[in-house]
Automatic annotation (TrEMBL), chain A:
Gene3D superfamilies: Histidine kinase-like ATPase, C-terminal domain (3.30.565.10). Residues 16-132 form the Histidine kinase/HSP90-like ATPase domain. This is Anti-sigma regulatory factor. SUPFAM superfamilies: ATPase domain of HSP90 chaperone/DNA topoisomerase II/histidine kinase. InterPro entries: HATPase_C_sf (IPR036890), HATPase_dom (IPR003594). It comes from the Bacteria. It comes from Ancylomarina longa.
From TrEMBL, chain B:
This is DRTGG domain-containing protein. It comes from the Bacteria. InterPro entries: DRTGG, Ser_kin/Pase_Hpr-like_N_sf. Residues 6-108 form the DRTGG domain. Coiled coil: none annotated. Homohexamer. It holds the Pfam family DRTGG. It comes from Ancylomarina longa.
Amino acid sequence: MEFRFEIEGGNFSKAGTASSEVKKILKQLNVDPKIIKRTVVSLYEAEVNVVAHAYEGEMNVEIIPDKVSVTIQDKGPGIPDIDQAMQEGYSTATPKVREMGFGAGMGLPNIKKNSDQLNISSKVNVGTIVEIVNYLK
Amino acid sequence: MVKVADIVNKLNARIVCGKCDLDRKLEFGFASDLMSDVLTIDTENLLLITGMNNLQTIRTSEMLDISHIIFVRDKKASKEMQELACEHGIALLECGYSMFRACAALNELGLKPVY
Ligand SMILES: Nc1ncnc2c1ncn2[C@@H]1O[C@H](COP(=O)(O)OP(=O)(O)O)[C@@H](O)[C@H]1O
Ligand SMILES: [Mg+2]
Protein backbone atom coordinates (compact mmCIF):
# COMPACT_ATOMS: atom_id res chain seq x y z
CA MET A 1 0.00 0.00 0.00
CA GLU A 2 1.22 3.49 -0.75
CA PHE A 3 0.06 6.85 0.53
CA ARG A 4 1.16 10.42 0.00
CA PHE A 5 0.48 13.44 2.21
CA GLU A 6 1.45 17.07 1.80
CA ILE A 7 3.09 19.09 4.55
CA GLU A 8 2.82 22.89 4.69
CA GLY A 9 5.85 24.75 5.98
CA GLY A 10 5.12 27.21 8.77
CA ASN A 11 1.54 26.07 9.36
CA PHE A 12 1.48 24.77 12.92
CA SER A 13 -2.28 24.37 13.01
CA LYS A 14 -1.99 21.60 10.41
CA ALA A 15 1.21 20.03 11.71
CA GLY A 16 0.60 16.40 12.52
CA THR A 17 -2.26 15.75 10.10
CA ALA A 18 -0.11 13.47 7.91
CA SER A 19 1.18 11.49 10.89
CA SER A 20 -2.37 11.26 12.19
CA GLU A 21 -3.54 9.70 8.90
CA VAL A 22 -0.73 7.15 9.05
CA LYS A 23 -1.72 6.30 12.62
CA LYS A 24 -5.29 5.64 11.48
CA ILE A 25 -4.07 3.33 8.72
CA LEU A 26 -1.72 1.36 11.00
CA LYS A 27 -4.53 0.97 13.53
CA GLN A 28 -6.84 -0.38 10.84
CA LEU A 29 -4.14 -2.88 9.92
CA ASN A 30 -4.07 -4.06 13.56
CA VAL A 31 -0.39 -3.27 13.99
CA ASP A 32 0.93 -3.69 17.56
CA PRO A 33 0.11 -0.42 19.42
CA LYS A 34 3.71 -0.13 20.69
CA ILE A 35 5.02 -0.23 17.12
CA ILE A 36 2.35 2.26 16.03
CA LYS A 37 3.44 4.65 18.78
CA ARG A 38 7.14 4.38 17.89
CA THR A 39 6.34 4.92 14.24
CA VAL A 40 3.98 7.86 14.58
CA VAL A 41 6.19 9.64 17.12
CA SER A 42 9.03 9.43 14.56
CA LEU A 43 6.79 10.64 11.74
CA TYR A 44 5.33 13.45 13.81
CA GLU A 45 8.80 14.70 14.81
CA ALA A 46 9.84 14.66 11.15
CA GLU A 47 6.59 16.34 10.07
CA VAL A 48 6.99 19.06 12.69
CA ASN A 49 10.55 19.59 11.45
CA VAL A 50 9.24 20.33 7.96
CA VAL A 51 6.68 22.76 9.41
CA ALA A 52 9.28 24.37 11.68
CA HIS A 53 12.33 24.45 9.45
CA ALA A 54 11.32 24.07 5.78
CA TYR A 55 8.97 25.67 3.23
CA GLU A 56 6.96 22.71 1.98
CA GLY A 57 7.19 18.97 1.91
CA GLU A 58 5.53 15.63 1.52
CA MET A 59 5.32 12.35 3.33
CA ASN A 60 5.35 9.18 1.27
CA VAL A 61 4.37 6.00 3.07
CA GLU A 62 4.78 2.45 1.87
CA ILE A 63 3.37 -0.40 3.90
CA ILE A 64 4.18 -4.00 3.14
CA PRO A 65 3.25 -6.86 5.46
CA ASP A 66 6.37 -6.75 7.58
CA LYS A 67 7.46 -3.13 7.46
CA VAL A 68 6.49 0.49 7.02
CA SER A 69 8.85 2.74 5.07
CA VAL A 70 8.32 6.47 5.13
CA THR A 71 10.09 9.25 3.29
CA ILE A 72 9.63 12.83 4.47
CA GLN A 73 11.02 15.12 1.84
CA ASP A 74 11.05 18.90 1.84
CA LYS A 75 12.09 21.99 0.00
CA GLY A 76 13.91 24.14 2.48
CA PRO A 77 17.19 25.43 3.83
CA GLY A 78 18.63 21.93 4.26
CA ILE A 79 20.92 20.79 7.07
CA PRO A 80 24.59 21.80 6.64
CA ASP A 81 25.94 19.37 9.27
CA ILE A 82 23.75 16.35 9.90
CA ASP A 83 25.93 14.92 12.71
CA GLN A 84 25.61 18.20 14.56
CA ALA A 85 21.84 18.31 13.97
CA MET A 86 21.55 14.80 15.44
CA GLN A 87 23.04 15.96 18.75
CA GLU A 88 20.57 16.31 21.58
CA GLY A 89 19.97 19.99 22.29
CA TYR A 90 21.17 21.32 18.95
CA SER A 91 18.48 23.54 17.44
CA THR A 92 18.17 26.47 15.10
CA ALA A 93 14.45 26.83 15.82
CA THR A 94 13.00 30.34 15.78
CA PRO A 95 11.31 31.90 18.83
CA LYS A 96 7.96 31.28 17.11
CA VAL A 97 8.67 27.54 16.95
CA ARG A 98 9.71 27.54 20.62
CA GLU A 99 6.49 29.28 21.57
CA MET A 100 4.65 26.34 20.03
CA GLY A 101 6.39 23.94 22.42
CA PHE A 102 9.05 22.67 20.04
CA GLY A 103 12.65 23.59 19.23
CA ALA A 104 14.46 21.86 22.07
CA GLY A 105 16.75 20.02 19.69
CA MET A 106 15.35 16.65 20.72
CA GLY A 107 13.43 15.70 17.58
CA LEU A 108 16.09 13.99 15.48
CA PRO A 109 17.50 12.00 18.45
CA ASN A 110 13.93 11.00 19.28
CA ILE A 111 13.36 9.78 15.71
CA LYS A 112 16.55 7.73 15.99
CA LYS A 113 15.28 6.20 19.22
CA ASN A 114 11.87 5.35 17.80
CA SER A 115 12.85 3.95 14.41
CA ASP A 116 14.53 0.74 13.27
CA GLN A 117 16.29 2.49 10.40
CA LEU A 118 16.88 6.18 9.88
CA ASN A 119 18.59 7.83 6.98
CA ILE A 120 18.91 11.59 6.51
CA SER A 121 20.27 13.30 3.45
CA SER A 122 20.24 17.00 2.80
CA LYS A 123 21.40 19.66 0.43
CA VAL A 124 21.83 23.22 1.66
CA ASN A 125 19.30 25.61 0.09
CA VAL A 126 17.54 22.70 -1.62
CA GLY A 127 16.00 20.49 1.02
CA THR A 128 16.09 17.47 3.27
CA ILE A 129 15.05 13.84 2.92
CA VAL A 130 14.36 11.79 6.04
CA GLU A 131 13.78 8.07 5.54
CA ILE A 132 12.33 6.04 8.38
CA VAL A 133 11.76 2.28 8.38
CA ASN A 134 10.01 0.37 11.14
CA TYR A 135 9.39 -3.35 11.18
CA LEU A 136 5.85 -4.31 12.00
CA LYS A 137 6.65 -7.67 13.60
CA MET B 1 -3.90 4.38 40.58
CA VAL B 2 -5.93 7.58 40.87
CA LYS B 3 -9.50 8.02 39.74
CA VAL B 4 -10.18 10.86 37.32
CA ALA B 5 -13.06 11.93 39.60
CA ASP B 6 -10.60 12.40 42.47
CA ILE B 7 -8.33 14.48 40.26
CA VAL B 8 -11.24 16.70 39.23
CA ASN B 9 -12.23 17.21 42.88
CA LYS B 10 -8.77 17.79 44.26
CA LEU B 11 -7.79 20.35 41.60
CA ASN B 12 -11.17 21.98 41.40
CA ALA B 13 -11.00 21.21 37.70
CA ARG B 14 -13.51 21.62 34.89
CA ILE B 15 -14.12 18.85 32.40
CA VAL B 16 -14.21 20.53 29.01
CA CYS B 17 -14.32 17.64 26.65
CA GLY B 18 -17.34 15.40 26.49
CA LYS B 19 -16.78 11.70 27.01
CA CYS B 20 -14.73 11.81 30.18
CA ASP B 21 -15.00 8.57 32.17
CA LEU B 22 -14.75 9.71 35.79
CA ASP B 23 -14.15 6.15 37.01
CA ARG B 24 -11.12 5.71 34.78
CA LYS B 25 -7.90 5.32 36.77
CA LEU B 26 -4.56 6.90 35.88
CA GLU B 27 -1.20 5.86 37.26
CA PHE B 28 1.40 8.39 36.12
CA GLY B 29 1.73 12.12 35.68
CA PHE B 30 4.06 14.11 33.46
CA ALA B 31 4.21 17.89 33.61
CA SER B 32 5.71 20.01 30.84
CA ASP B 33 4.97 22.91 28.57
CA LEU B 34 7.45 21.56 26.09
CA MET B 35 6.01 19.09 23.58
CA SER B 36 9.56 18.09 22.58
CA ASP B 37 9.86 16.75 26.14
CA VAL B 38 6.48 15.06 26.16
CA LEU B 39 7.32 13.25 22.91
CA THR B 40 10.15 11.37 24.63
CA ILE B 41 7.73 9.78 27.13
CA ASP B 42 6.46 6.27 26.54
CA THR B 43 4.21 5.53 29.50
CA GLU B 44 0.69 4.22 29.58
CA ASN B 45 -2.09 5.48 31.86
CA LEU B 46 -0.58 8.91 31.92
CA LEU B 47 -2.03 12.30 32.79
CA LEU B 48 -0.37 15.16 30.93
CA ILE B 49 -0.17 18.33 33.02
CA THR B 50 0.59 21.36 30.87
CA GLY B 51 0.13 25.07 30.39
CA MET B 52 0.69 24.79 26.65
CA ASN B 53 -2.72 25.20 25.09
CA ASN B 54 -2.43 24.78 21.36
CA LEU B 55 -3.43 22.19 18.78
CA GLN B 56 -0.02 20.55 18.95
CA THR B 57 -0.64 19.63 22.59
CA ILE B 58 -3.57 17.54 21.36
CA ARG B 59 -1.63 16.16 18.37
CA THR B 60 1.28 15.18 20.61
CA SER B 61 -1.12 13.40 22.97
CA GLU B 62 -2.77 11.64 20.06
CA MET B 63 0.58 10.24 18.86
CA LEU B 64 1.45 9.05 22.37
CA ASP B 65 -1.99 7.61 23.20
CA ILE B 66 -2.32 10.02 26.11
CA SER B 67 -5.96 9.85 27.21
CA HIS B 68 -6.15 12.75 29.68
CA ILE B 69 -4.74 16.29 29.65
CA ILE B 70 -5.11 18.88 32.40
CA PHE B 71 -4.40 22.50 31.54
CA VAL B 72 -3.06 24.53 34.45
CA ARG B 73 -2.71 28.32 35.07
CA ASP B 74 -6.28 28.74 33.83
CA LYS B 75 -5.26 28.01 30.25
CA LYS B 76 -8.32 27.29 28.15
CA ALA B 77 -8.72 24.69 25.45
CA SER B 78 -9.96 26.34 22.26
CA LYS B 79 -12.95 25.02 20.31
CA GLU B 80 -10.60 23.52 17.73
CA MET B 81 -8.57 21.80 20.42
CA GLN B 82 -11.73 20.40 21.98
CA GLU B 83 -12.92 19.06 18.63
CA LEU B 84 -9.62 17.38 17.87
CA ALA B 85 -9.45 15.92 21.38
CA CYS B 86 -13.00 14.55 21.12
CA GLU B 87 -12.22 13.01 17.74
CA HIS B 88 -9.38 11.06 19.34
CA GLY B 89 -11.08 10.25 22.63
CA ILE B 90 -8.84 12.50 24.68
CA ALA B 91 -10.39 14.00 27.81
CA LEU B 92 -9.53 17.64 28.56
CA LEU B 93 -9.57 19.20 32.02
CA GLU B 94 -8.84 22.80 33.01
CA CYS B 95 -7.80 24.18 36.36
CA GLY B 96 -6.71 27.52 37.78
CA TYR B 97 -3.78 26.19 39.82
CA SER B 98 -0.15 26.84 38.96
CA MET B 99 1.82 23.94 37.56
CA PHE B 100 3.60 23.49 40.90
CA ARG B 101 0.43 23.50 42.97
CA ALA B 102 -1.31 21.11 40.59
CA CYS B 103 1.63 18.70 40.64
CA ALA B 104 1.91 18.84 44.42
CA ALA B 105 -1.78 18.01 44.76
CA LEU B 106 -1.58 15.19 42.22
CA ASN B 107 1.44 13.77 44.02
CA GLU B 108 -0.57 13.81 47.25
CA LEU B 109 -3.31 11.85 45.51
CA GLY B 110 -0.76 9.19 44.59
CA LEU B 111 -0.11 9.91 40.92
CA LYS B 112 3.38 8.60 40.18
CA PRO B 113 6.22 10.35 38.34
CA VAL B 114 7.51 8.82 35.10
CA TYR B 115 11.11 9.27 36.25
N1 LIG C 1 13.59 19.35 7.62
C1 LIG C 1 14.57 20.15 8.05
N2 LIG C 1 15.02 21.18 7.28
C2 LIG C 1 16.02 21.99 7.72
N3 LIG C 1 16.63 21.85 8.90
C3 LIG C 1 16.25 20.85 9.70
C4 LIG C 1 15.19 19.94 9.33
N4 LIG C 1 15.04 19.04 10.31
C5 LIG C 1 15.93 19.36 11.26
N5 LIG C 1 16.66 20.43 10.90
C6 LIG C 1 17.79 21.06 11.65
O1 LIG C 1 18.21 20.17 12.67
C7 LIG C 1 18.05 20.79 13.95
C8 LIG C 1 17.67 19.75 14.98
O2 LIG C 1 16.40 19.18 14.70
P1 LIG C 1 15.56 18.55 15.91
O3 LIG C 1 16.44 17.57 16.63
O4 LIG C 1 14.28 18.05 15.40
O5 LIG C 1 15.37 19.77 16.88
P2 LIG C 1 14.38 21.04 16.76
O6 LIG C 1 13.41 20.77 15.66
O7 LIG C 1 13.76 21.10 18.09
O8 LIG C 1 15.26 22.21 16.48
C9 LIG C 1 16.99 21.85 13.72
O9 LIG C 1 17.04 22.88 14.66
C10 LIG C 1 17.38 22.35 12.31
O10 LIG C 1 18.49 23.19 12.38
MG1 LIG D 1 12.34 18.96 15.62
